[in-house]
Design a protein that fits this description.
This protein is an alpha+beta fold. The protein folds into 2 domains: 266 residues, Uridine Diphospho-n-acetylenolpyruvylglucosamine Reductase, domain 3; 191 residues, FAD-linked oxidases, C-terminal domain (Vanillyl-alcohol Oxidase, Chain A, domain 3), CATH 3.40.462.10. 36% of the residues lie in helices and 21% in strands. The protein contains 15 helices and 21 strands. The strands form 5 sheets. Strands 13, 14, 15, 16, 17, 18, 19 and 20 form an 8-stranded antiparallel β-sheet that branches. A hairpin with a 5-residue loop joins strand 9 and strand 10. The radius of gyration is 22 Å and the shape is globular. This is Glycolate oxidase. GO terms for molecular function: (S)-2-hydroxy-acid oxidase activity; FAD binding. Pfam families: FAD-oxidase_C (PF02913), FAD_binding_4 (PF01565).
Length: 470
Amino acid sequence: MIESQIKDRLTAIVGAENYDDSKAGRLVYSYDATPNFQALPDAVVSPRDTQEIAEIVKICNSSKIPIVPRGSGTNLCAGTCPTEGGIVLLFRHLNRVLEIDEENLTVTVQPGAITLDMINQVEAKGLFYPPDPSSMKISTIGGNINENSGGLRGLKYGVTRDYVIGLEAVLANGDIIKTGGKLAKDVAGYDFTRLFVGSEGTLGIITEATLKLIPLPETKKTMLALYQDLEAAAKSVSKIISQKIIPATLEFLDQPTLKVVEDFAQIGLPTDVQAVLLIEQDGPLEVVERDMQKMAEICKEQGAVSVQVAQSESEAEALRTARRAALSALARLKPTTILEDATVPRSEIAKMVKAINEISHKYGLSICTFGHAGDGNLHPTCPADARDHDEMERVEKAFEEIFIKAIELGGTITGEHGVGVMKAPYLKLKLGHEGITAMKAVKNALDPNNILNPGKVFAKDSRKRVVVTK
């Protein structure tokens, strides 16, 4: 637990109502969305502004108390599980959209703002913030930045990193720095903005972000292509891109996923096919209609048994909502749902899908596969039961083989979920010893006492799931 003297100092900074070390309060923030990882923090602290965060960090740094910055805890890599105790830092008071600048096409926002709330405010001005993680109804901008979140629109528009142009952050020694700004060009020194994005709270605590906006697309259309052959669906993805068409959304769901999602969403999804592609295009009307027609032709040429265009925005929104609900739907099957992500070049999608199916059969598991096929980011998901130790061993071995296969195909161990604790044992597969050494040099320079989200990112011998209580 936190020493009484330090507790008094922290309480003096944030107020007694913003310091919680009760068992119940600590338990609430002992886990995130990652199955079977849990560890109690020593306290939960809710600062009210950047200066308070800086003062908290100075105290923790001098006493070597770990700090875990946390948004809504929707991440899937145990990135906000306080595995080494310390303080969980909440941003519930720093949750405002500070400015929408229509002249410079930017939005300035605090880290605790809910992603969808910010998007709705931006779109009310006729502007567009494209990153759309499936958790956007509850995830925060700070969490999105720490994990470099992606989403369904990543193929055409990129991910969170592509829209963060300025940050305010508190370093491990309590210094407050500002990076970037409302600039189209800025090459003054190292690009700390991009360094902080995706660093999982291990290099600094983000307290404010300036995000790039673009004009809201004029129109959009959505269609569903149905397949009786998984590889035909995967090959359609490569063919569409090779024809120099970049759809806003190009999503893949296999039959097991379809069945579960339809049972959950009840919107009339077909469950008698092996796979579907959910395809959306946005932009000027004439471009959208031309691209949709061409993509429909490509899908049919590649073996689609049917191509259906949504007849209304409500129908299209139902399809998008169903896709975003895939994890929730799959979580109903068994007590423990292991959702992973592995990314390969989109030309290798067919090989990766085939490999996932072969690996699932090898280990006697049911692995449902869906994901952002257009950018090669697949989400193999295994319903399991943590109480069945034999099954969990097989799950871990299967996913290790999936990650190895992704690397063999020129891919990576994670496209958007982050490393956290879950992927740390496999990071060396992607970066090699030299790459990890270089990362540690950056970490040690900015956080020599290792207080910022310790125990995350860097390689461990095992990703054994832990439950820790204090």
